[in-house]
Amino acid sequence: MENLVLITALMLSLLALFLLSGMWIGPAIAAVGIVIYILFIGGSLDIIGMVQFNVLNSFIWTAMPLFILMGHIVFRCGLGDKLYTGAVPLVGILPGGLLHTNILSCAIFAASSGSSLATAATMGPIAIPELKKRNYDKRMIFGSIAAGGTLGIMIPPSIPLIVYGAWVGESVGKLFIAGIFPGIMFAGLFMAYIALNAVLSPGKTPGRERINPKAMLFGLKDILPVGILIFFVLGTIYLGVATPTEAAALGTFGAIIIAAIYRRLHWIAFKESIVETVTVNGMMVLIIVGTQILSMTLSDLRIPARIAEFVASAGIHRGLVFVSIVFMYLVLGCFIDALSMTLLTLPVTYPLMMSLGFDSVWFGVIVTLMCEIALITPPVGMILFIIQGVSGENLSEVVYGTLPFIVLLLVGAGLLYAFPEIAIWLPQQMFTAF
Hints:
about 425 residues
């Protein structure tokens, strides 16, 4: 255990040193892995080149840039405003009024873009001015958009689920389907809180929309194209018609067609989508390769196996291990981005959780949930900065508005632990009824 403590302390110290020096996080993680390899294992570094090739020599990684491109096309072609307008008559009639529209429109947009940041950046400029004009409570506005934005990486398509699946060798299709019910559950929790808050504090919500069947019908019409896009992705995977990579290509093609039908497919927007896709994908590949190098080093030193053996021999209850891992992710999410946090911890947390008998698909949903929370926890929660920039308010107002929704996300984590079927039942039904 002494060597384990020494290696862990050295690894964390080196990572902090490299990051504080301004090094990009992907190369920083790789550098830590290389230094630890030289100090504690030794030998030729030729294996580093093999690691870089092997980690990316997988067909499933092709889905990642395609889903990123699909999200950017949906985002830049301005489909979000029609989606928000369509959601108003459908859920604005509930206690809490248009705050529910934030959740519903964010959930649907998330299922068509797969990006939490794009969801918040799209819905924020549409919703915030409108709700401010109607005198809704500012903190409730910010909190509902931030919470709705987090659904972008739970409701598939989800980049973190692709990364998790490729990393641990789990079916990405099953992971996508596993995220549907938890995503719906979290949307329901958010809307229930908004409704309860509206009943207990009516001054925070001016009033509901009137029931208007004609407006509701037109609202469904506005949402339908995005629903078709969602079917291109999730329906084809669930029915076994397409692999996740093929579904990503279908989704991207569908997004282009829908944008063209609405006459919003402009060359500038398409060009910007391509550039952003290449930029984001390049950044993610650096992180993936860097963390794989560190993972190889840790595996050679048997650190994950030794931790699992220690937990098993100590007789620690798996519920306590689960709570400890959730707490660890909460702390890490305050300081590093979600993708880096996931890949940095999986070499240790995944073998440990599997040794305790947890389901691999279920754990993928839990890791993605912790990524959601990381997006709205200060000081590096990216969604918080997006909403602060859009609203022009102090960051503290956005943070205070988001806190109740963080609690709801943790409540959801408890429900997933108590009832894992929420995540794993639907994937178990895949292809069986067809």
